[in-house]
Write a structure and sequence with these properties.
Elements (H helix, E strand, L loop, with lengths): L10 H42 L2 H4 L3 H32 L2 H12 L5 H6 L9 H16 L13 H4 L5 H14 L4 H8 L11 E7 L9 E5 L2 E2 L12 E7 L10 E6 L4 E3 L16 E7 L3 E7 L2 E8 L8 E4 L4 E3 L3 E9 L4 E9 L14 E3 L10 E8 L9 E10 L4 E3 L3 E4 L8 H15 L4 H13 L8 H16 L3 H20 L3 H20 L3 H28 L4 H28 L3 H20 L9 H26 L3 H27 L12 H18 L2 H18 L1
Antiparallel strand pairs: 1-2, 1-4, 2-3, 4-7, 5-8, 6-7, 8-9, 10-12, 11-12, 12-15, 13-14, 13-16, 16-17, 16-18
Helix pairs in contact: 1-3, 1-4, 1-8, 10-11, 10-13, 11-12, 12-13, 14-15, 14-17, 15-16, 16-17, 17-21, 18-19, 18-21, 19-20, 20-21
Amino acid sequence: MSDPRLPTGDAALDRRIARALRRARLAAALEVGWREAIVPLWLCGLLVGLAWVGLRVALPGPFGAAIVWALAGLAVAASLRAAIRIRRAVRAATDPAAVRGRVERASGLRARELSDLADDLPAPTSDPATRALWTAHRRRVAARIGGLVAGPPRPDLGRRDRWALRPALGLLLFVGWFAAEGEHGARLLAAFGSGLVPPPADRLDVWIEPPLHTGLPPRGVVVDGTLADPAPITAPVGSRLVVRTSPGIPTRPPAPIDLRATPPESLANDETAGSPATPAKPGAPSELRRVLRGDGTVEVRRGGGEALRLTMRPQPDLPPTIALVEPPSRRGRAGLRLVYQTGDDFGVAAARVRTTLPSGTTGRPLWEPPSFPLVLPSGGRHVGRAETVRDLAGHPFAGAEVDLVLEATDGAGGVGRGAPVTVRLPERVFHDPLAAALAELRRRLALDAGAIGEVVVALDALDLAPERFETRFGVHLGLRHLAAVAAAARDDDDLRRLADELWAVALLVDVGDGADAEKALQAARDALAGALRDGVSPEEIERRIRDLRQAMDRYLQSLAEAGRRAPSGRDGAEGGGRRVERQALSRRLDEIEKLARTGSRAAAERLLAELGDTLDQLRAARPGQGGGDASQQALGDLIRRQRDLMDRTRRADRDGADAGERERLLSEQRGLRDELRRLRGKLGEDGASAAESPDGDPLEEADRAMDEAGGAIDRGEGSRAASAQGRAIDGLRRGA
């Protein structure tokens, strides 16, 4: 037969045939080579796997050595035998006829076209007809050849591995690889030696754990004995330096570790550390924890020698800062409004207001000056601007001058204080002069227990001429009871009970039958405000909102009953407005509940304070309180309209108002201001004056606040406008 690579007359077909034959020879060589090499490869894999899993460690004597060397000898013999057989098999498999047959079988050439092309005439001939006929035959054979493939190698190992040992060998190598982690070469060499593998070194890791309040993640310093960063350790003071060593061999404990600091006070023991330096059980890691206190050098010693040396430069944790950004002001009935700014390098954990009596104050107070927590700014670090409104109407020191200090605390316990400010605590404005006199006696007694004598004299004087105060018979009996209690007081507890009864009678005189409803309403408001500050569960928030809603309904019912007992005309003028107020207050409560449920508790507290202002305004404008003339009705109408405008201004600021909406808000605000000015002029012509207030003329303050609100609306500053509108409502309420 001639060489099959002889030209067929088609150059492209000649190239395809040549490529297919080369691939077929390679596939045949791989096929027979892999088939013959499987036995020595399997023996070598068995030897490696047994060495990795620790055969010589388990059998350190001559028996283990005999197994290893026997396997090695078998592998060498099998390799030599396989080399000889592979050479013969490859020669047979790559025979031209065998290669052509492989391509024909893989390509589906059933008529042996490649073999036909490899044939030639039995004897040379010069007969043109014979040559032409032979050439035509070759062309027809070449035309029948399509795609040529050699087929992949098929060693057919299943016939050689009758016991299915290949998966077992694979599992052995897989387990051995992980069992000899980091010691693959050492264990293989040790299998042919004494069988002893050099013990792996203990792992040494060092990292820094910043205090939780910083919010910083742990940082690695030494990872498996390698220094991650040669720079000095910079971490907040109070961070934990953790040194851990793990044994290289699980059956023995790691070498003992120790830390030496220079100077010694730069490190302190960690009181929360639970792992001892030397573990009790073999294989357990050994860990040391120390707290960074100052600059210094730390020497890490392991097994009696120095393992590494670290330089520490801890960052001091600065105390937080807090300061007023606006002067303290009055909000609502007797709310103290504080606007402040907090700051800290890692965040503020808590803030409080602490008050003290001014220096030089004489007397022995019966109560401690008021102290209460502040609302923290939103955000994870609680730094920035915030506002707190605290109702102090019921505190015995209401109306007294105190020194007020803001105090902030960070997560490390650092305390920062603002500059002290002298303020007069807001007090409830009583419309009834007898109620105001009783409240004043209560404050004097609370500030000085020695004033009991003056209180006794004052109560006797009030009881001598009850007709001057148009005192009802029930109130007259209450005054006589107070005088008897004051005369019988013997200790501070008796004086405190007297002060509480003075306050209860003052509320009864000023509010009448609605005193209990108002007291219950105030208690429900305080309970909800405390729940929002303390971060109680949503279920508890919902329960307290439900209690406040019930208390508010009872309070509004008491106002309605007072309106029905008022002179004719007042109840009819306010009946529709009262229904509107009830609906608006219910919507406010729904919004507070929604904000608390979504986690915006600071916003819920602010809205609760505004709800308190609204309720206080209703109390101030109730019938039968200081007259029911047209001027007071006009002021009540102004309060309602200004409050409605404030709500719409807040919604416009939240949702984004266009120029047309701002123009309508500005026009309404200016209209309310002009109406207030006309009303003030009418009051002046009639010889009337605004209700007396310790803060000056409240209607003039409301006028200025309305002007400020109009300017803020014109500039597009919705939040500032709403704040000014709130102050205008407060001034109108106090002037009613």
